[in-house]
Amino acid sequence: MSKPVIVALDFADDFECIEFLSQFPKDTDLFVKIGLEMFCQFGYPFVRSLRNRGYKIFLDLKLHDIPNTVKRTCEMIAKWDVQMLTVHGSGGAEMIAAAKKGLEGSQTNLLAVTQLTSLGQKELSDELMIPLKSQDYVTHLAKLAFDNGADGVISSALEVPMIKEVTDKDFLCVTPGIRPKTAQVGDQKRVATPSEARNLGSDAIVVGRPITQAENGFVAYQNICQEWNK
Ligand SMILES: O=C(O)c1cc(=O)[nH]c(=O)n1[C@@H]1O[C@H](COP(=O)(O)O)[C@@H](O)[C@H]1O
Question: Which residues act catalytically here (predicted)?
Fold first, then answer.
């Protein structure tokens, strides 16, 4: 299977989202990410409707709570037949293990967010008061996730080689913060182009605005797929 380009569906309303998706030919093998913005508005029925269209779903809820709450939430999500789910790695070992336990019996890959790609070294040190180099913090959280049963992590593409080194080559590295050379970086800090992400060993890239806000979303998607698969 070729490695996916996951389209982040960050839209303010479902009409806009469905209109965007209508640009894609019916036989496109789409992998989409439903994040907090759309999930808070449209909930599980929206997830189900996109799953019924045959899309693969990355449900990006970034769960971060006490282990019991996360486990019970994951038990519910386990019935939804989604391909990926996120928790925050900084929720700790017990929480990650509880999430995995909650997903037992499902095909859902559990991914732990390491350091958000919108945070750089300055924010890590000055705001979060974490006295580590960013790459050490990311690899620490990746190892924690690996040791506690996660199937992979979310990180910047820049950290993938280090993560694979401290975990396993098959430990999934799904990387947002993807910006083609000509795109606006916006609020992202640790960015890479699709071809850089591929060369660094990412297993999947997550792309939002460079596709969803392009004049022609399908063409932008095709261009990114072409660069990613080259
Ligand atoms: O978990 C994520 O998907 C995520 C983690 C992270 O560290 N950085 C990050 O940007 N994301 C998500 O990836 C998407 C990136 O969108 P764009 O910046 O528009 O390409 C957004 O939906 C973010 O919520």
Answer: 62
CATH of the domain at 70: 3.20.20.70
Whether residue 188 has its Cβ less than 6 Å from ligand 1? yes
Enumerate residue ranges in the chain where pLDDT < 70.
Answer: 1
What's the ipTM? 0.98
Distance, in Å, from the CA atom of 32 to the CA atom of 197, rounded to the nearest integer, reads: 18
Indicate if 62 belongs to the active site. yes
Helical residues (DSSP H) of 55-92, grouped into ranges: 67-77
200 near 192, Cβ under 8 Å? yes
- For residue 94, list its beta bridge partners: none
3-state SS assignment for residue 205 = strand
- Provide the pLDDT for residue 37: 94
CA of 149 to the centre of ligand 1 (A): 23
pLDDT score of 2: 82
Q: What distance lies between CA 98 and its chain's CA centroid?
A: 20
- CA 20 vs. chain centroid, Å, equals 20
Find the domain containing 115 and state its range: 5-229
Burial of 122 from C-beta contacts in 10 A (0-12 / 13-18 / 19+): exposed
* Helix residue ranges, H only, the chain: 14-21, 36-52, 67-77, 93-102, 121-122, 134-147, 160-166, 194-200, 209-212, 217-229
Nearest CA to ligand 1 atom 15: 208
